[in-house]
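Task card 7
Instruction: Convert sequence to structure tokens.
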Amino acid sequence: MSLTLTTPTAQGETTATSLAPREQETLRHIAAGRTYLQTARHMGLSKHTVDAYLRRIRAKLGVNSTAELTRLAIALGL
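Output:
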């Protein structure tokens, strides 16, 4: 398995805007190192809702791991 790091482009900006505001907020929390439960409590949601948001984010952005989500969030400036 290999990962290729690229710099964000106009497509990356489009990718960030394709996320709903709550999805962006969820991604920011996870990228900051918070757990699903901590994120849920901070956002006033259940951990199942946070899990659903993250599944949608992964599908939209085509990533599979939390590490990839974090890298992408940093690259997008979230």
